[in-house]
Design brief:
The chain is α+β, with helices and mostly antiparallel strands. The strands form three sheets. It has a five-stranded mixed sheet. The chain has a four-stranded antiparallel sheet with strand order 1-2-6-5, with no helix packed on it. Strands 4-3-7-8 form a four-stranded antiparallel sheet, with no helix packed on it. Strand 3 and strand 4 form a beta hairpin. The radius of gyration is 24 Å and the shape is globular. Bound molecules: ligand 9MR (2 copies). One ligand 9MR binds next to loops.
Length: 574
């Protein structure tokens, strides 16, 4: 019985005594609960274990497999984390760098906390994170060779997609049909949204651009493996190719989404009976598309033997999308009355303009794009699907040919410094301070930002703060939960994902990061189901919880960048 349920009982003596004893027991367990990276540290990682309660100064020992004490210390001062409402102390043992399995024992306690240090662990985890995209492929059977127990028939051929009235044009009237197969399912639902595909695809392209040599050695088990391209790129191209089909060849505009009119039931992909439509072209979708295609074009020039012509096709697509946007500079997405699936609606698209112009400039060096690239005037924010200008900064600071690099570097480091400060000052030694829908991806994106700041400054404090984001995602959090399916000692089992619910297999596909705690949309399971009103504690491992326990391609792409990028940095700096 959970403490939450206890509240609903009318308590009379002698039950009161029993219940309060149970409560005491519960509290003492909670008070001693620990948050630690449950998957494993890299030898170079910042290593902390968090203990709820006031344990400051308490001595602890770390013991190796042979029973020898290899590290001793005492817990930090306790501090209160306002987001969880909990007091916390931590053990810090970053100096321990020898690979192995260990236990941490706090003086006076019987139960020891196990953890591991393993050079290959981020690589192994990162591989599964990207492999999970394969499982989300649309229009393609997931076979046993690559999908194992999660093999399933192809879902959604998407060969006959209806032009919705909102998307009608002279050449493509309402009710006419186009073909738009492939891509990834966005999340726990089966629809495909260009805005969200843009940032997801960009994140993986940027990962390949930055760490291509390292990634070349990472083989996923996917149908394209062995074709001469890094597999992370192979997987990314599966979605990129779908994105190309979302552009109207007659005018260059890009449809906002491909969707059924409403969300289907919790069925397997091949059992979804609903018709699918492309819905209105929007400037946000068209600019995100242009940015992603321009980035892809730059990257794919390096792989022209394996994918001849694709770089050129992407560049043409980017340019025609830009031209459409210039003619339609402010078409905001408005959900038609008969459509109720995800909106990805955005009322400020100045950041999309900045991003698209930046990527197009970097690819073409055509001055005309610079009109929209005023780095000094731009206000940069942490990337997420609706805030994309900082993605442009990433491309600028990583670009070999330099474009106003100094001011871009300055802006980027200034933004990263805000998160570094949170990290340094928070009781939980973590940079997050807001918990919107998909809060775990906030952390992943903060980690990516901090990594870029490390790249610019070579100051390892940024790297440390980025690695702490991995630790949090893998269990060093007040919920003591590893938010990555299939990893750790306590991870989500009942995710809001149609495939996971309907496939008859208890464990979800591994390597998917759930959205994580938030106070948004708690009506999904019912307010009273949530165990706490503190944002960092407002999480449910239940299928109904689309607010906290769904999975999504943008969240996973950010996690992939963070984990594999750190793996590359650590590996090459050794
Ligand atoms: O399954 C849907 C999920 O992908 C979305 O993130 C979420 C919010 O838009 O909506 C989910 O669908 C629910 C719908 O909104 C309301 N009826 C129940 C649906 C399944 O839980
Ligand atoms: O990730 C999106 C989040 O930022 C929004 O607050 C939320 C409600 O609009 O929608 C989220 O995106 C969902 C999308 O609309 C439909 N597919 C599932 C996405 C993840 O929950």
């Amino acid at each position: 019985m959970s403490i939450n349920k206890l509240k609903h009982y009318k308590i009379n003596t002698p039950w009161r005594a029993v219940v309060s004893a149970a409560l005491l027991l519960f509290i003492s367990i909670v008070a001693f609960a620990q948050g630690i990276n449950q998957v494993g540290f890299r030898p170079e990682s910042v290593k902390r274990a968090f203990f709820d309660g006031k344990w400051e100064g308490q001595a602890y020992h770390i013991i190796n497999k042979e029973g020898a004490t290899v590290f001793s210390g005492s817990l930090s001062q306790s501090g209160r984390w306002p987001h969880s409402g909990t007091e916390v102390c931590y053990a810090e043992f970053s100096a321990l760098k020898v690979e192995g399995n260990y236990t941490l024992l706090l003086k006076g306690q019987k139960e020891a906390l196990p953890f591991g240090i393993d050079q290959g662990i981020y690589r192994q985890l990162g591989k599964e994170v990207v492999q999970s995209f394969y499982h989300a492929r649309v229009s393609m059977a997931i076979d046993e060779k690559h999908g194992g127990v999660y093999a399933r028939p192809a879902g959604h051929p998407d060969a006959e997609i209806i032009i919705h009235a909102s998307a009608a044009s002279a050449e493509r009237p309402a009710g006419s049909v186009i073909s738009s197969p492939g891509g990834w399912y966005d999340a726990g639902d089966y629809n495909k949204y260009i805005v969200n595909s843009g940032i997801s695809t960009y994140s993986l392209l940027h990962l390949v651009e930055q760490y291509g040599d390292h990634l070349a050695g990472i083989e996923l088990n996917i149908p394209e493996s062995g074709n001469g391209l890094p597999d992370v790129l192979n997987e990314t191209l599966y979605n990129l190719r779908w994105m190309l089909t979302m552009q109207d060849p007659h005018d260059g505009g890009v449809y906002h989404k491909l969707t059924s009119k409403r969300f289907c039931g919790m069925k397997m992909p091949h059992n979804d009976p609903l018709e699918r439509y492309v819905v209105m072209k929007s400037t946000a979708a068209t600019l995100d598309f242009a940015a992603t295609m321009a980035k892809a074009s730059r990257l794919l020039q390096n792989y022209s033997k394996a994918v001849p012509g694709l770089a050129d096709s992407c560049l043409t697509a980017a340019q025609t999308a830009w031209a459409w946007s210039e003619q339609h500079p402010d078409v905001l997405y408005k959900q038609p009355k008969d459509i109720s699936t995800g909106e990805y609606k955005d009322s400020d698209i100045s950041d999309e303009w900045f991003w698209a112009a930046t990527e197009l400039y970097l690819t073409t060096r055509n001055q005309k794009f610079l009109g929209k690239v005023d780095i000094d005037a731009e206000k940069f924010t942490l990337p997420q699907w609706g805030m994309v200008n900082t993605l442009g900064l990433y491309s600028i600071v990583s670009d070999k040919n330099k474009l106003n690099t100094k001011s871009a570097q300055k802006k980027l480091v200034r933004l990263a410094d805000q998160y570094l400060k949170n990290y340094e000052q928070s009781a939980y030694r973590i940079s997050i301070e807001k918990f919107p829908w998909g809060s775990n991806s906030e952390l992943a994106n903060q980690g990516i930002l901090l990594m870029h700041s490390y790249m610019i400054t070579e100051d390892t404090k940024y790297l440390e703060a980025a690695d702490a984001c991995v630790g949090y995602i893998l269990g060093a959090n007040p919920l003591h939960m590893c938010f990555m399916t299939g990893f750790g000692t306590q991870s989500p089992l009942h995710i809001h994902d149609r495939r996971s619910v309907a496939d008859g297999i208890d464990a979800p596909v591994p390597g998917m990061m759930v959205g994580g705690p938030t106070k948004q949309a708690r009506q999904d399971c019912g307010e009273d189901k949530y165990p706490s009103t503190f944002p960092a504690m407002s999480y449910l491992d239940m299928e109904c919880s689309y607010a906290t326990n769904e999975i999504a391609i943008n969240w996973n792409a950010a996690a992939a960048y963070l984990i594999l990028g750190l793996d590359a940095i650590y590996t090459t700096s050794n």
